[in-house]
Amino acid sequence: MPDSFRFDRLFIGGEWVEPLDGGVRPSIDPATGAPWGDVAWGGERDVDRAVAAAKEAFEGPWRKIPPWERAALLRKFADLYATRVDALAEIETRDNGRAVRESRGDIGMHAQYYHWFASLADKLGGRTIPMDDSVHAFTTRHPVGVVGAITPWNVPLMAAAWKLGAALAAGCTVVLKPAEQTPASSLALARLFDEAGFPPGVVNVVPGDGPVAGARLVAHPDVAKISFTGEGATAKTILKTGADTLTRCTFELGGKAPHIIFADADLDQAINAATGSAWALCGQSCALGSRVLVERPVYDRVVEAFRERAGRVRVGMPLDPATHMGPQAHRQQLDKTLSYVAIGRGEGAELVTGGARIDRDGLADGYFVEPTVFAGVSAAMRIAQEEIFGPVAALIPFDGEEEAIAIANATPYGLAAGLWSGDTGRAHRVAARIEAGMVWVNTYRYIRWSTPYGGVKASGWGRENGLEGLDPFLETKTTIVSTTGTFPDPFAS
Ligand code: NDP
């Protein structure tokens, strides 16, 4: 464990405090199945303390700090973050098993997210509204208040960057609850906010169980908004829990992204993107192209390329920089992935390669699974409909644009999509008709601070990043000022 971070305290009100309710729990390294560190575990009373600290900070110092000073603090934090990329990547990799070459690449970009949000902090002006001469009408924008940020286990620091960067730039204060499998990196993050000099209570971090600490955060009357990334089923529970307090919610949920390869595509590039996306994060990302739709004339070539590439994926210990793909992040996810391999075979899909847990020396205690390819998949199969969240590519053949669009849209999800074609007109036609929050054309998973990210249909509500990313953390107030000061007596006649 890197020396400068420790994880056995909660971060509340600018202090490192022992949990009142929960104590300390081991965090499991999915590469070994063994504990690698002890993490403080908060309960309801800890969440209450954190919300009280966040409320006090919101009503006190944070509200009074001019926006350009909020921005300066965020920039200072971002610069500090950039100096700790290696340590943060190691912590995240120990918690979720993501190959460290990926963790470093991802976490290496986070400082830029915080810089982007910092750059927006003092530009959140309203507008004047053209009216007649009798009034002057204008809007102003105000932070909603205390934000509960609830994050998943696959990308804890990325989800935190998107939520905290936007919330803090908007002038909100935050209580962050990371997923139970991956709490350590969020406490490391708290250390950096502390070092950067954020006022006490502006950022609070309380790991804990979702149905306890998470639910208390959602139900708390002083929490104005929940920014959530996770599963749709959890989002529905959150909506019900937050109903009595009318808590605002944004949701980044699951996906089953179609990655469409037309026969006229630059096939080498398309295969690079499609195979890379199938096995990145060991398949554990909502935006990965888990459904690969391939036009029939090139279908066999693409299947063969997937089979060949799967053999070149170096599965291994995630802290080894040579490793391409680490283990699944936790035992339940491993079981889920293996169960979907069985489902795919039972549905009649052809298992081209992979599909088994890896039990070779050195990896047998971890949650490693082979990169897996199914061919002959039809759109209605469960492996083409349901989010597996494992390194399982489902290759679906299609004939022509209309069928590609129909298959692409035939799931409950609508997060992301990719398409490869050498025909610009076709690319526009198809992109326009795909039901998704994001469509990548002749590229894939290009995600940046300035590009809005989020889903339609069962993939969520609202957008993170981009200019739109601040909207959920702001309320608009309309002020109308009479220029005459006169108001007619309604009962004069
Ligand atoms: P979960 O929904 O299980 O958990 C997400 C977070 O919610 C965790 O912190 C969890 O805590 C918490 N939680 C659980 N129950 C409650 C509750 N009753 N009230 C409040 N909070 C609760 O998702 P996963 O962690 O399993 O993450 C994987 C999912 O996230 C996938 O479906 C994936 O598609 C989605 N995802 C979406 C992204 C997007 O941008 N659209 C990006 C990344 C992931 P605990 O861990 O203790 O249960």
TrEMBL record:
Keywords: Oxidoreductase. The active site is at E252. One of its GO terms (molecular function) is aldehyde dehydrogenase (NAD+) activity. PROSITE patterns: ALDEHYDE_DEHYDR_GLU. Its EC number is 1.2.1.3. Residues 23-478 form the Aldehyde dehydrogenase domain. The keyword Oxidoreductase applies. InterPro entries: Ald_DH/histidinol_DH, Ald_DH_C, Ald_DH_CS_GLU, Ald_DH_N, Aldehyde_DH_dom. It holds the Pfam family Aldedh. The keyword Oxidoreductase applies. Belongs to the aldehyde dehydrogenase family. This is Aldehyde dehydrogenase (NAD+). The lineage of its organism: Bacteria, Pseudomonadati, Pseudomonadota, Alphaproteobacteria, Sphingomonadales.
